[in-house]
């Protein structure tokens, strides 16, 4: 990697891209073929009403943009970015874990520094036109269905809502894909494909159309006071291993997402020590699974995904079972035993 100003140029395996200090990825290539124009946060600040989010990176007034910090670890590097925005009034913290395989785990967190509102907050992956026009992308839905969606401007301005993970094929190179596994926020309004031609494009893009993959748009707005935060977590997985490998990644991503969603709805109900230990084990293995994906150990990742998905899905049943044992069956057995002892003593007296 190389740091130039507030930009980190990264070249790893067959993947190249830039991480900007403002908290985003631009110009991602696989085998020198341009895939992503942009990957990062998108929202409409009040001061930009009517403008496109494509202009956010260049038009929002940044009060502060720090030089990214890069730290090496066994399997790659971790890039941390920080920026402070004037409007909306948020700190933007980015953590980009880049594995030697080319896999990127992206964590973008907004933290309000004053009472503020983000309009239509989310993350976008932008793909260039016409290179990615007329293709077929693979998705997996929240129900676990793997489907093929058209990727062309004839679909209109929006289509293909409801996917959890998405895989974009190369327009030029067989078996090459960029898979996006989306994980946080676990509560969100939509994921969707869009194409635009009627709004301003950024200065570095001169084509008439642009493709946008909407990653977990939170809804119309998110509001918070000082210290309140919201996080986007997703994985960019570039590879050259074909369609079946891609489908396996989509399935792993779906199970990982399902695990996180299950924990969100059930963890507050977990009270017993036994199920609390199961919960902690699942949470630990989520981190292990993401790391296995990053290192390319798909066999272990797939096995872990299956295991923690089943445990998380049935966590409330496990809790209910132990509650039944601890609070109903065991006390009942004790009472029943006492009754027997009392009866025996009564018989002996007679």
What sequence of helices (H) and strands (E) makes up the elements? Answer: EEEEEHEEEEEEEEEEEEEEEHHHH
The helix content, as a percent range, equals 25-40%
| Biggest sheet features | 10 strands, antiparallel
Distinct helical segment count: 5
Q: Which second-level CATH architecture of the domain at 2-241 applies? A: Distorted Sandwich
Low-confidence stretches: 47-58, 321-330
Number of strands: 20
Name of the top-level CATH class of the domain at 2-241: Mainly Beta
Quote the average pLDDT: 87
Summarize the structure.
This protein is of the alpha+beta class. The chain has 5 helices and 20 strands. The protein has a domain at 2-241: Beta-galactosidase, Chain A, domain 5, CATH 2.70.98.10.
Mind sketching the topology for me?
Blueprint: E1 2-4, E2 7-12, E3 15-20, E4 24-30, E5 33-44, H1 56-59, E6 62-65, E7 69-73, E8 76-85, E9 90-99, E10 104-112, E11 116-128, E12 135-141, E13 146-151, E14 158-159, E15 163-169, E16 177-184, E17 190-196, E18 210-217, E19 221-224, E20 229-239, H2 242-266, H3 273-295, H4 298-313, H5 315-349
Antiparallel strand pairs: 1-2, 2-3, 3-4, 4-5, 5-11, 6-8, 7-8, 8-9, 9-10, 10-20, 11-18, 11-19, 12-13, 12-15, 14-17, 15-16, 16-20, 17-18
Helix pairs in contact: 2-3, 2-4, 3-4, 3-5
How does this structure look, described?
The chain is of the alpha+beta class. It has a domain of 240 residues: Beta-galactosidase, Chain A, domain 5, CATH 2.70.98.10. Helix content is 29%, strand content 41%. It has 5 helices and 20 strands. Strands 1, 2, 3, 4, 5, 11, 14, 17, 18 and 19 form a 10-stranded antiparallel β-sheet that branches. Helix 2 packs antiparallel against helix 3, helix 3 runs antiparallel to helix 4 and helix 3 runs antiparallel to helix 5. The protein starts with a strand and ends with a helix.
């Amino acid at each position: 990697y190389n740091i130039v100003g507030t930009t980190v140029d990264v070249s790893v395996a067959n993947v190249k891209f830039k991480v900007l200090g403002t908290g985003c990825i631009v110009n991602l290539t696989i085998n020198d073929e341009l895939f992503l124009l942009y990957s990062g946060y998108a929202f409409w600040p009040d001061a930009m009403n009517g403008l496109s989010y494509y202009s956010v990176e260049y038009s929002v007034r940044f009060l502060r943009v720090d030089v990214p910090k890069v730290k090496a670890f066994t399997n790659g590097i971790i890039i941390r970015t920080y920026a402070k925005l004037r409007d909306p009034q948020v700190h933007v913290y980015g953590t980009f874990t880049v594995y030697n395989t080319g896999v990127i785990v992206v964590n973008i967190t907004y933290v309000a520094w004053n009472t503020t509102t983000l309009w239509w907050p989310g993350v976008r992956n932008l793909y260039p036109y016409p290179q990615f026009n007329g293709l077929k992308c693979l998705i997996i839905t929240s129900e676990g269905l793997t489907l093929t969606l058209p990727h062309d401007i004839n679909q209109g301005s929006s289509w293909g809502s409801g996917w959890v993970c998405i895989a974009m094929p190369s327009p030029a190179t067989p078996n090459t894909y960029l898979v996006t596994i989306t994980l946080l926020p676990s509560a969100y309004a939509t994921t969707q494909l869009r194409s635009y031609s009627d709004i301003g494009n950024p200065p570095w893009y001169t084509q008439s159309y642009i493709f946008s993959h909407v990653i977990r748009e939170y809804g119309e707005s998110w509001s918070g006071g000082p210290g309140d935060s919201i996080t986007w977590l997703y994985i960019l997985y570039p590879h050259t291993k074909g369609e079946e490998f891609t489908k396996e990644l989509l399935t792993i991503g779906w199970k990982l997402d399902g695990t996180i969603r299950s924990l969100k709805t059930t963890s507050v109900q977990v009270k017993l020590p036994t199920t609390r230990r199961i919960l902690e084990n699942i949470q630990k293995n989520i981190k292990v699974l993401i790391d296995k994906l990053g290192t390319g150990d798909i066999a272990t990742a797939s096995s872990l995904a299956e295991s923690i998905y089943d445990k998380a899905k049935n966590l409330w049943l496990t809790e209910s079972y132990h509650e039944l044992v601890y609070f109903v069956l065991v006390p009942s057995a004790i009472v029943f035993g006492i009754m027997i002892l009392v009866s025996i003593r009564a018989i002996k007296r007679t």
